[in-house]
């Protein structure tokens, strides 16, 4: 993964109806460790990392790079939404030179089932459509990850192809540059 490219970063924090999307801060470190150590969050993402290893390895301010938004609900981090450039070596592309903007989302299990991921991703996709209006956004998720599959469809991603990677069937979809929620 490389940087997002020529986008102003960090943008002003984005407010939605219930959430604030902002750059990470030192006070988010515990929530980042929770996120990386959670078996539920990593069921379809290769498994969690050991908490003691994370305590040593996670920097003072984790997730500080262009494209990573902390999802803040009521003053506390409940997850992240990110946009990264998709590696050319991986399967799944819609642009001739690869490097597509790829959406990722991770919420702490306590925040599932409230529509937070959809609300946060919609706002991030709208931000991206304003700063790089001609670019599609891609998304890759295991077909077994039912919550993620429902979210992808709710966000307006459509299937490009399915393939095997990391020992599982992956769903690869795209949201065209013209899809802006308003
Ligand atoms: C994928 C993930 C972000 C989805 O989270 P989620 O909370 O299910 O997704 P949404 O924000 O779209 O919430 C939708 C659910 O909230 C419910 N909901 C409750 N109140 C709501 C409200 N006010 N507005 C909208 N939806 C609401 C919806 O009915 C829906 O429930 P359903 O899926 O049972 O039908 C989450 O499961 C996760 O973090 N998983 C682990 C990480 C992962 O696998 N990421 C994929 C990487 S590619």
UniProtKB/TrEMBL annotation:
PROSITE patterns: GNAT (PS51186). Residues 19-181 form the N-acetyltransferase domain. It holds the Pfam family Acetyltransf_3. This is GNAT family N-acetyltransferase. The lineage of its organism: Bacteria, Bacillati, Actinomycetota, Actinomycetes, Kitasatosporales.
């Amino acid at each position: 993964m490389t940087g997002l490219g020529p986008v102003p970063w960090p943008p002003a924090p984005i407010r939605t109806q219930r959430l604030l999307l902002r750059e990470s801060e030192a006070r988010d470190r515990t929530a980042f460790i929770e996120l990386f150590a959670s078996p539920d969050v990593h069921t379809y993402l290769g498994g969690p990392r050991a908490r003691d290893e994370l305590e040593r390895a996670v920097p003072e301010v984790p997730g500080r790079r262009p494209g990573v938004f902390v999802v803040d609900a009521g003053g506390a981090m409940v997850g992240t939404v990110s946009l990264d450039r998709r590696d050319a070596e991986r399967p799944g592309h819609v642009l001739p030179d690869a490097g597509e903007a790829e959406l990722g989302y991770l919420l702490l299990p306590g925040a599932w089932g409230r529509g937070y991921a959809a609300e946060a991703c919609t706002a991030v996709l709208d931000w991206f459509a304003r700063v790089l209006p001609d670019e599609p956004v891609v998304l890759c998720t295991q077909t077994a990850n039912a919550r993620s599959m429902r979210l992808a469809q709710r966000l307006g991603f459509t299937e490009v192809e399915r393939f095997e990677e990391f020992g599982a069937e992956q769903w690869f979809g795209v949201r065209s540059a013209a899809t802006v929620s308003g």
